[in-house]
Amino acid sequence: MPKKAKPKVKVASRASKPRRSASKSKSPVKAGAKAKSGARAAKPIKAQKGKKVVLLSGGNPQIAKGDGDGPVQAYIAAMPGWQRDLGKRLDALIVRNVPVVRKAVKWNSPFYGVEGQGWFLSFHVFTRYLKLTFFRGTSLRPIPPGASKHKEVRYLDIHEGDELDEAQLATWVKDAAAMPGWIT
Questions:
Q1: Residue 154: helix, strand or coil by DSSP?
Q2: Residue range 6-58, pLDDT digits in tens
Q3: Chain-centre distance of CA 10, in angstroms?
Q4: What is the largest CA-CA distance in the chain?
Q5: Nearest to 111, CA basis, from 99, 100, 123
Q6: C-alpha dist (Å) from residue 27 to 30, 34, 35, 81, 115
C-alpha cells in the first residue's frame, strides 16, 4: 500500500512577521502613572568636567570600565550622598595601607589589587548600604561577617551611621593585599 503524502502546511517566514520591540510596552505610558514597586528610573548626575553619570538601580554609578586611579575617582565622585564620603575614606585607607595598589573599574565597581597578584578587594553601592568584597576573605582573621556562595569570598556591608572600625579594616586590607588575589 503506497504511503499517503502529508499535506504541506504553509509556514510564514520570520521575515514576513512584524517584529515586536522587547523594550517597548504594548500600551503607551499614561501621564501620572506610577512605576511598579521597587522600580526606579535611572538618575543622571554630574560627574567630573560636566559629564553626566547614570545611577543604576540601587544608586550604583555607571562608570565605563578602565584601569588606573581616574576611573575609580570618577566612580567615587558619582556615588550618591553619604556613600561618596565613605568611598573617599575607603580609597584613602586602601592607598595608605597598600601604597603599590593597582586600581580599576570593572562591572561598575572599583577594584583594588596588586600587580601580578590579582584583585583583593572591591566595593559596590546599594540603596541602603555599601558592600565591601574581600575575594580571599575566608583567609582573613577575624573572618569578615558576610557569607558568600563563593567558597573564599566574604563581605562587609556598611550602612549609613555604622561605626567603621578603621583599625580592623586596615588590617584586613593589608592582609588581603599580601596574599594571592582573584585573577580576572
A1: strand
A2: 555 554 544 554 555 454 444 444 444 444 454 444 444 444 455 666 766 67
A3: 49
A4: 90
A5: 123
A6: 9, 14, 14, 36, 52
Contact criterion met (CB below 8 Å) for 137 and 119: no
Helices 81-97 + 69-78 axis angle, to 10: 150
Give Cβ neighbours of residue 54 (< 8 Å, ≥ 6 apart): 42, 43, 44, 45, 61, 62
Task: Write the CB contacts of 53 (distance below 8 Å, at least 6 apart in sequence).
Answer: 44, 45, 46, 47, 61, 62, 63, 74, 78
Please check whether residue 105 is in contact with residue 111, taking contact to mean a CB–CB distance below 8 angstroms: yes
Do residues 52 and 45 make contact, with C-beta atoms less than 8 angstroms apart?
A: yes
Element holding 72 (H helix, E strand) = helix 69-78
Domains of the chain: 44-178 (3.90.1150.200)
pTM of this structure: 0.70
d(CA 180, CA 148): 19
Assess whether pLDDT exceeds 80 at residue 70: yes
One-letter amino acid for residue 76 of the chain: I
Distance CA 127, CA 145 (A): 20
Amino acid at 31: A
Detail the DSSP E strand segments found in 11-117. 43-46, 52-55, 66-67, 101-106, 109-114
